[in-house]
Specification:
heterodimer, A: about 575 residues, alpha+beta, Phenylalanyl-tRNA Synthetase, Chain B, domain 1, Phenylalanyl-tRNA Synthetase, Chain B, domain 3, 4 domains, 5-stranded mixed β-sheet, B: Ribosomal Protein S8, Chain: A, domain 1, BirA Bifunctional Protein, domain 2, 3 domains, 7-stranded mixed β-sheet, about 35% helix, elongated, magnesium (chain B), protein biosynthesis (chain B), tRNA binding (chain B), PheRS_DBD3 (chain B)
Amino acid sequence: MYLFFFYLVLADEEFDELCFEFGLELDEITSEKELISKEQGDSKASGASDVILYKIDVPANRYDLLCLEGLVRGLQVFKNKLDAPRYTRVSPVSGQPQRLIITKETAAVRPHAVAAVLRNITFTQERYDSFIELQEKLHQNICRKRSLVAIGTHDLDTISGPFTYTAKPPGDICFKPLNQTKEYTATQLMSLYKSDSHLKHYLHIIEDKPVYPIIYDSNGIVLSMPPIINGDHTKITLKTKNVFIECTATDLTKAKIVLDMMVTMFKVNFTCFNNLILIISCLLSSEFINHKVGINESTENIAQLLTRMCLLSRATGVGDEIEVEIPPTRSDVIHACDIMEDAAIAYGFNNITRTTPRTYTVANQFPLNKLTELLRQDLAAAGFTEALNFALCSQEDIGDKLGKKISETRAVHISNPKTAEFQVARTTLLPGLLKTIAANRKMPLPLKLFEISDVVLKDDTKDVGARNSRRFCAVYYNKSPGFEVIHGLLDRAMQLLEVKSARGDGYHIQAADDSTFFPGRCAEVFVHGKSVGRLGVLHPDVINRFELTMPCSALEIDIEPFL
Amino acid sequence: MRQGGNEVFWELDVTSGLSRASYGSNMADTGVVEALLRLVEKADDGVDSVQVASRLGVDHQVVVGAVKSLQALGDVISADLCSSKHWELTEEGTEIAEQGSHEARVFSSIPLEGLVQSELMKLSFGKIGFSKAMSNKWIRVDKTHEGGPRIFRTVDSIVDQVQEKLLLLQKGSGSELEEKEKNELKKRKLLSEVTVKSYWITKGSSFSTTITKQETELTPEMMANGSWKEKKFKPYNFEAMGVAPDSGHLHPLMKVRTQFRQIFLEMGFTEMPTNNFIESSFWNFDSLFQPQQHPARDQHDTFFLSDPALAHEFPQEYLQRVKKVHSEGGFGSQGYKYDWKIEEAQKNILRTHTTAVSARMLYKLAQQKFTPVKYFSIDRVFRNETLDATHLAEFHQIEGVVADYGLTLGDLMGILHQFFTKLGITKLRFKPAYNPYTEPSMEVFSYHEGLKKWVEVGNSGIFRPEMLLPMGLPEGVSVIAWGLSLERPTMIKYGINNIRELVGHKVNLQMVYDSPICRLDS
């Protein structure tokens, strides 16, 4: 509701403009009512709220903008309506800080854990919802669906430290999980949650491990079994005053970032342990920023620009030096260039003078593309029309349909195709052209098509084990096979490439056997004694497999030898 | 439809408009033309084409043909289109005109001694004729007669008015009848009203009964013997379409690609060799400082290879520096601080962007004494994404890269301004964005005059030091870069809504045949 309140003072266009300047994407202005009616129909939406909702996309590295509290704070500071917060770590008023003991058993399953306590927090329903929602967003984003980091939040007043993070065989773990009425062993839980639409996606993370991670308090109460489920005993409610937050992880850096987000979004003062670094101070020069951005601002101005991005900065007075404090909310800042970008955003990208670099260079075409461009023009001039087909296709397209065994092609295979259309990279341009004809059967005959494009072949001599090969392929589809037409096109292409018709030092064709072609109607093309491709009348079975009914002749050659 | 040379395309309906692809026509039957001219000569106020047809004993369409060919000669005749209605007997009407009405025939079939009703009903006209004759009170029925009902005449003689009227109409003297009478006959389906479209033909200003034969086309013989000087030539019909040439066509997306290449070349950019669709994760992601857990490296977004599954050759020293900057930081960076694995970097994929090639080129550049470069490429990239009307699993990426000492964000915006100006786009603005390998990163928006709003046209940024410094590029060198798709501007340029009609085998070849040349700035 903060957001609503804050932007009542701004018209939608102004808000849109602000998002643009700040690098947010205002996706949609809507309401709960509108959303429900769009998805489930007007009748279902009748009771829903019509409070305005702003759907905003935030940059993928700005976890601090994932919740309303952080987003509003960021924008208010940017608009000079609020001072940049300085986060501090405080010790509890009464006695020692809490401790989390990590045992060596966790190394086998989930080796890292960090924790913090938020004290004297007041939850309203909205704040509580936002707190839960932030957890869920972090789980989906930086935590990579809990595989890297899992967050657990607990009511500190229901438990007592020190806490122990350990790992045990699933049969030895037994507790009452969140929102259940009885105790289960971890083994039972895993089968219970197999049918849970939400939790079933996380089971694989620990399922086949010998031990499962588990957190106890000093009295043996289970806080959570990360990354699956919390205990019911410690659940937070609207009445919770002190929150214990634990993040278990396979990636310690990310665990720290996530914990930082969980504490800083809801309170500027908090306690945390595991030696988290709170604020990094860094020194840089205003000249660096001016130089990289292409502006000319004073050191003080630049310090102000950075402060508006929640990077508290001040001119130190030593030359053009600026001291920048990077708060725990800004895990995205890992290099001076990140600070430079923030200065540019605060300055306004569109206020920067556009300049022309003086870089002097002479242009060169890539010779293979130059040849391709020139050849395409003249092949179209020879009466053939250019087609443009996908580089990916099914195994069938380059195998069975052409009367070839897929194992005999040099095709590269894709391991994760969503459909059969993306099983392999094509090894020949022919299937694409035949499919183009099939999709255009209503067009008047003859159909004369060509394509000059890359196919992909396995090649052990390359670092990746495969290479592209640039091919020229043409087909003639009519009531008669038209071998002489396709042969004539080959002659024309050779003329264009300045290869004369001769055995040995020119080009010639010679009968060949190829299961794609009609027996006795296929020839191999030799240039300077080396085979570059084939031409001929296609086999009727091949034609039929591409759902065509007329005779068809085709030519395909490699054009790289003509460079 | 492609139309041929000498065929005649006169449509049979004389009211139809001009036919296509016919500059001239073959002369209609010369005999009919001459006969028509003689008739026109004799008639002072003109003749009707229908009447001419009946006088010459030919079909009306033949006369229409003659009229048209005479019109083509200039002002020999003038012909005005007119339409007239006239009555025509139906088949039944014609029969009655010949043999009399049904009722009259009933009357005359009845002898003085009368006729058994069942006998009468056996006659073809019996049933209709009986009831009409009864209502005319010409006959009567004696139902009590022995041997069944018998019919007798009630009058001595009758006048068959129906036959008389029909005969009048048949002779063309229908005007003597009243409308009411004609409508009655029409109701009995003996008469129908027909509209006839005909020409009213009168003498033209250069009327003559002898016409010079007009030549259709200039021939080599005429040119050789000079006879063309004396000949008259038939005028061309310039409203017709020409005959489409037999031609090949370039694909519209490739035409746009040619223009983009041209623009880069005009700006002094050298083309990168992008003919390597298969790339290792190392060059596609790791060298670009894209962390190994990044969502783009998921199975959901990237096509991985099962064969050949792994790349096996990397510049080892460079690989170590990349590993270090990811896992520990360095070059002024905190790094991502995670366990960087060679196994992940080795995985072969179909490249997700041509920036993988830019990385290879910049690495290569760093191995020599540094000279400033401007690079570009336009080639295919692959994404294992959900497909829709504007997204395919593969598309063409356009990319520009400039490396030099001291390049600024202002320089990037300036060069983008020049680039987009060449595309005819001058109103640009920039929005902060996030990209793992550029910092700052900017989305490029242009103002769309049609939509009256800002639309995204590309992405851009300055490559991160964590990408450039491990390659060995000098510290002060900045590399600015931008990218956009080739398909989107092409779809806008050629007004195509479904990408499948443009790219792939489902292409509409007619669209390819019909697509104009591509000038992006006009």
